[in-house]
TrEMBL record, chain B:
Main location: membrane
Organism this protein belongs to: Brevibacillus panacihumi
Protein name as it appears in the record: Branched-chain amino acid ABC transporter permease
GO biological process: L-valine transmembrane transport
Phylogenetic lineage: Bacteria, Bacillati, Bacillota, Bacilli, Bacillales
Coiled-coil ranges from the UniProt annotation: none
Annotated localization: Cell membrane
Amino acid sequence: MNDKIIWIILLMALITYLTRFPMLLISSRWEIPDWLRRGLAMVPVGVFSSMTIPPILFHMREGAWSPEYLVAGTVSLAVGLWRKQIVWALVAGVVVIALYRQAVGML
Amino acid sequence: MSNMSGSFALFVSGMRQIIPVAAAGIIDGIVFGLLARQAGLGVTEAVLFSLLVNAGSSQFAAVGLISQGIVGWPILLSTALLNARQLLYGLSLGPRFQGTPAWKLSLMAGTLNDETFALKATYLDAGGKPSLSFFAGASVVDYVIWNASTFAGAWFGAAFTQTEAYGLDFAFIATFLGFLAVNLLTSFHVKVAACTAAVACIGYALGGGTAAVIVGTLTAIVMGAVSDER
């Protein structure tokens, strides 16, 4: 087994725990300033849009820009907004891209 | 004695109520296990992720980076940024547990993820009394489902070869689009998402994926902190 991977997993577990426990403890004992609360409230939207939109817009396949991620991504986001469940966005995105590749015949 | 049976009833109630929420994670867990194998990890490593980290989005991102041959600090950075939203979960639950001993909170924090938080918040908003037993019941079931489905995906994952034909290279992005969708709660959120995306694209063009996430997230935090809009 790869030692480096094990270290990464352990450090990820530590970092993850640090995002879970300290803030729970602090906010159970003290008041949190409003501006910090408002800033943190935008973290999910910030992280998820910056992890998805650039790779979709800059997607290359076989050396050229390809619209396949844009097509599948649009459907995936729409389904996510409609169903309000992450798993349906996942299923829709994967199905659309598989169908798209069948249709374009790039397989 | 009545107190004992009361907390046991709440424990069972938590176990029951998390099922529809956690069941949706079965496919995510299977896909995670599968992608972990595709990235070159073994079954043990794939399952260790779910056992020890137990935070779907950061696990997906880590495996995505590993499949590109990146094993190091970018994984830890993306873990910190992705899981920073759990700071919010603590922030919103903490005030409900003012009298709870720190060691009990430290246990509760161990399984504070998207699914368990969603259920806890819904339960408390519906007027439920803050109960560690209820949360423990929910957490146990969520944890078992996530790990069992990871194991199933990892076990059968090696047999899967044509990932591109099945569109699995898009699974990461599609999952995160789902997360984005459920977080677009108000028009202000949409505005922040749009500005973040624009800044992130510049970051992406200049410095790649990690740079995009850093500048994008900072943009969102600053917009939230300075704005009066909700």
